[in-house]
Write a structure and sequence with these properties.
The protein is of the alpha/beta class. It is 31% helix and 21% strand. It has a 7-stranded mixed beta sheet with strand order 1-3-2-6-7-8-9, with helices on both faces. Strand 8, helix 5 and strand 9 form a beta-alpha-beta unit. The protein is globular, with a radius of gyration of 16 Å. The chain starts with 7 loop residues before the first strand and ends with a helix.
């Protein structure tokens, strides 16, 4: 591979992995942020799921006064249509694709890999998952939105047209309004994707019911 892989935190099963979840964090967080969720998912050991939590590159964020932090892309404005820096989204998607390819080279087939992301990470998961040329086991977007939804139909790969997509959001989210997550869901639905919408009484975070639902969804997709 020509580029160096993103650094990541890994949580490995007790036996040789049969499946992988690559989970992308939100703005200003790191791969360490979601790693503690793995035991809370209470996944059966025989599924042998490996979790990879990459660290986004450090970059200046315009809406935060140019402060440098881990981010998958810059946010230049809070305007819904222009929130995600599209070049940054594409660069990060390419870096995450390299991580998927690295797992495939270790012997995990693409259809045993789930691409998940929270907030900014969900933007990358939706962007890459719908354009990736190999069929994945599933795509998960949590408290997130879609970058350039108007380009999806032209840029989408057929490989993941039937891949299950879970879009989940809190109805008290003040960081990414629920309307943004629901718009992503509707765009996916209108493009014929096998997408599910889950809504929770929570802010920009995760809650126990969501963790339980994610666990059930992962078990179904990776059994």
């Amino acid at each position: 591979m020509s580029q160096e892989l993103l650094p990541y935190v890994e949580v490995n099963p007790t036996q040789a992995p049969k499946a992988v979840v690559i989970w992308l964090h939100g703005l200003g967080d790191s791969g360490n942020g979601f790693a503690p969720i793995v035991p809370e998912l209470k996944l059966p050991e025989d599924l042998a799921i490996r979790f990879v939590f990459p660290h986004a590159p450090v970059r200046p964020i315009t809406i935060n006064g140019g402060m440098e932090m881990r981010a998958w892309y810059d946010i230049a404005s809070m305007d819904f249509n222009n929130r995600a820096d599209s070049e940054g989204v594409k660069e990060s998607a390419a870096q995450v694709e390299a991580l998927i390819e690295a797992e495939i080279s270790k012997g995990i087939p693409a259809n045993k890999i789930v691409l998940a992301g929270f907030s900014q990470g969900g933007v990358i998961a939706l962007h890459l998952g719908t354009r990736y040329e190999k069929t994945l086991a599933g795509i998960m977007s949590l408290s997130s939105y879609m970058s350039e939804p108007e380009k999806l139909s032209a840029e989408a790969s057929n490989a993941n047209k039937m891949t299950p997509i879970l879009v989940a959001h809190g109805n008290q989210d003040e960081v990414v309004p629920i309307m943004m997550g629901n718009t992503a869901f509707k765009v996916l639905e209108s493009n014929g994707y096998a997408v599910t919408w889950n809504e929770y009484a929570m802010p920009h975070s995760v809650c126990k019911q969501e963790i339980d639902d994610i666990s059930a969804w992962l078990q179904q997709k990776l059994k």
